[in-house]
Design brief:
The longest helix is centred in the N-terminal third of the chain and has 24 residues, at about 45-70. The protein contains ten helices and six strands. Strands 2-1-3-4-5-6 form a six-stranded parallel β-sheet, sandwiched between helices. By secondary structure, the protein is of the alpha/beta class.
Length: about 290
Amino acid sequence: MISYRHHIVSLVAVFLALAAGIALGGGPLSDLGRDDQPASASTTPDRTVEQHASYGDEFATASAAALYAGGLKDQSVSIVTMPGADGATVNALGAQVEAAGGTVGGTYDVQRTLTDVSEKSLVDTLGSQLGTQLGSGAVSADASTYVRIGQLVGLAVARSELPSSDATSVRESLAGAELLTSPDGALRAPVVVLVLGRHTDPAILSGVVAGLAEKATGLVVAGTTASAAAAGDLGVLRGDAAADHAATVDGVETPLGQVTAVLAAIRSLTVQGGAFGAAGADGAVPLP
């Protein structure tokens, strides 16, 4: 008997193919059954491509709740945005977290000071000071500048054994140095979704991701379709060892990418890593 999961997998494969505009008409069977009648206005190539492109998003939006199956029930998610992350995308991700039964514990914005290579001395000094204040074991003694700051951001936003008073102190220190915003009433969460924005120096992004992954139960790094290109931030990160313990998702500017990111967040509660999306090496959608 074909299970419900196999039905879902088949449907996902179909809508992804349609979303990518893959049709027999463009392949080796394109001449079969073709007549000389001109295409009608309603089936022009541009219109067909447009319909294919929107179908995947429509399917994802309609099927999201069934795919989530309440996977984030009683769970919270922290959203961390890199400089230049699109606000509408961040809000849409938050809505999808709620559709999966979860809550957004807080949305934290990484400030340009943290990613500015000319401010490395500030980032290093503050990271060293906070590491000393928190005591042995809070951050790695031999961590590099940006891995350490990533660990500190993780302690500030991700649920851990660190006392809540210490986590609050870290958030306030990072906010005071204009490295990370600290929203009122924020709650630490087991899962962190890091939303990429404008280009970030690869070494800085790699360090922050590696540090965050060490402190969060699950980490999802979400980038746009363009960022997944070989020279894009997500594309470069996927070739870095720092991404081994973080799930990466491309196409997050689309509803399909947003649903995929939340499915990856659900998966990250028990399984870390994986590259998902149209350019993902581990499949289009992370299904249980």
